[in-house]
């Protein structure tokens, strides 16, 4: 009997995570999908089963709460072949004005949950000598981001962390890949309270999450270290590398500030 591979995907009910889940299901991976809302999970599980005929397990967790992340690790007994750390959030506004607890929740979700899940499942993968991990970074991780100072900083962590751990396990048969999208047409900006920002006014300039997911999926399967989704984003990142961080921060301040200011 052929071995059935399983992918664990957080943030799997919308945006890039949802599009990634479809790609894994189309390739006949069984899925364990994680999000905050059980109703959304049930809805997507039904869709995936109907369209792809794979087994779906749903687990509702708030991954900004560390005890729920740890309990997720304990609940999963199936060997995980691919871990996708997609769940993430941002908050828009000046650092001095944003609510501290909201920003700490973003640090817990974007950084701490990624560390906990990666450590737990990477150990199992290394012991088997096989596995893949896709961490959702962002071009934000290469660009200091006024109006989203904490979010950009969390994505800088994800990129550095993924690159370093990848090097540590390079001879183990396990690969880690960072997917770095730019502005993508998802619910992220709405949840972050960013709808007044200049950067989200032009919907036509936003990437399609399905296209971003496809680039990430192909990079993951090829064992690449990272992929910047979209050539425009790649140009922006490479151009930013030529400028002092202070100049990049000023550019981002102007790009991301509210339209009325």
UniProtKB/TrEMBL annotation:
Q: Mind telling me which Gene3D superfamilies this protein's record contains?
A: NAD(P)-binding Rossmann-like Domain
Coiled-coil annotated residue ranges, if any: none
Keyword Oxidoreductase tagged: yes
**Domain of life of the organism encoding this protein:** Bacteria
SUPFAM superfamilies under this entry? Answer: NAD(P)-binding Rossmann-fold domains (SSF51735)
Concerning InterPro entries, the annotation shows:
NAD(P)-bd_dom_sf (IPR036291), SDR_fam (IPR002347)
What the entry lists under CDD domains is as follows:
SDR_c (cd05233)
Per UniProt, the keywords (alphabetical) are: Oxidoreductase
Please name the Pfam families in this protein's record: adh_short
Q: Does the keyword Oxidoreductase apply?
A: yes
Give the family this protein belongs to, as stated in its UniProt record: Belongs to the short-chain dehydrogenases/reductases (SDR) family.
- Name of this protein: SDR family oxidoreductase
Its source organism is Mucilaginibacter gynuensis
């Amino acid at each position: 009997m052929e071995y059935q591979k399983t992918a664990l995907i957080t943030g799997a009910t919308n945006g890039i995570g949802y599009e990634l889940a479809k790609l894994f299901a189309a390739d006949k991976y069984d899925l364990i999908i994680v999000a905050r809302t059980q109703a959304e999970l049930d809805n997507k599980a039904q869709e995936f089963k109907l369209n792809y005929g794979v087994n779906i397990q749903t687990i509702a967790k708030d991954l900004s709460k560390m005890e729920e992340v740890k309990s997720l690790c304990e609940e999963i007994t199936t060997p995980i072949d691919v871990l996708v750390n997609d769940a993430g959030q941002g908050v828009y506004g000046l650092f001095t004005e944003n609510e501290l607890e909201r920003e700490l929740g973003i640090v817990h979700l974007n950084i701490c949950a990624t560390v906990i899940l990666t450590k737990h499942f990477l150990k199992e993968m290394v012991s088997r000598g096989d596995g893949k991990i896709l961490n959702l970074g962002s071009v934000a991780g290469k660009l200091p981001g006024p109006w989203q100072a904490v979010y950009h900083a969390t994505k800088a962590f994800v990129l550095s962390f993924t690159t370093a751990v990848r090097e540590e396990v390079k001879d183990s048969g396990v690969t880690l890949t960072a997917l770095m999208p730019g502005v993508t047409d998802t619910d992220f900006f709405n949840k972050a309270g960013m709808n007044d920002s200049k950067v989200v006014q032009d919907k036509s300039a936003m990437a399609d999450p399905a296209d971003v997911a496809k680039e990430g999926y192909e990079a993951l399967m090829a064992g690449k270290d990272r992929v910047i989704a979209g050539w425009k984003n790649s140009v922006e990142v490479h151009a930013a590398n030529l400028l002092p961080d202070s100049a990049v921060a000023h550019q981002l301040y102007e790009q991301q500030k509210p339209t009325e200011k």
